[in-house]
């Protein structure tokens, strides 16, 4: 294979990775909207367990078509367990807990630190340091998040005050960064489907136990619309989203993928415009341009 063909393949893999991680954050933006809609009908732990149960059944079916070595735990079982604990079991409950004590604005701003945290963990755990372009892209993305949530007003900074919820949300972001880094390590030897499936299978029992505990004080109110919403969350944010994210991490690396994690608030604003009639302001366009531009700059190869 010639160098030109190799370069074309690398460029195609990069474009695929960018599309995949953006598909993941788009599905997760719908998850946030539906999760908020369901907050009075089903507890966060029960919702997380229900969506993972649906996702695990689908992943189990998909996994049957993979080679035999991808359908069993190998020597990377401890890495898979780390993925299960960090991204599947602990991330969402930790984030929900932090949001009980801090504001959405603070949480969104702290999430913007995700690419930097991922770069640090990737350097320490798998010896994949951030490149200069990735650092610059992460800074641009964080700037886009600030523009997006401040709406161009300097008075925004007056509402920022440190509290215990901020540190809990920071812990949640670190957990997701760890999940991405561990996924990169696992996917050196198995497919994104296998890594996603086994991390889900290993995390499901813990969430089911947590859900049983929560149900004692937070019973479920489930009608047809709520049940359909749970099934949707189990199929798209949990299966499509996690598979797309892990496949994107495999192509871009954890630091390259996390630069696009900041598109979550951007897609949230876009969905609000399309389905709730919320206005799109100039700050949305400017913030979105910085977030997307930072991600493209971070991964661009001449």
Outline:
This protein is an all-alpha fold and 302 residues long.
- Taking Cα atoms only, what radius of gyration do you get, to the nearest Å? 19 Å
User: What summary fits the major beta sheet?
Assistant: none
How much strand content do the residues show? under 5%
Distance between the termini: 19 Å
The DSSP helix count reads 11
Number of domains: 1
Shape: globular
Multimerization status: single chain
* Number of DSSP E strands: 0
Task: Assign the structural class, choosing from mainly alpha, mainly beta, alpha/beta, alpha+beta, or little secondary structure.
Answer: mainly alpha
H/E order of the elements?
Answer: HHHHHHHHHHH
Name the helicity range: over 70%
| Unreliable parts | none
Mean pLDDT: 84
Which terms would index this structure?
302 residues, mainly alpha, 11 helices, 0% strand
How would you portray this structure in words?
The chain contains 11 helices and no strands. It is mostly helical and 302 residues long. The protein has one domain. The protein is globular and about 60 Å long. The two termini are 19 Å apart.
What is the topological layout?
Layout: H1 3-37, H2 44-63, H3 77-99, H4 104-111, H5 114-126, H6 132-150, H7 164-186, H8 192-215, H9 224-258, H10 263-276, H11 282-299
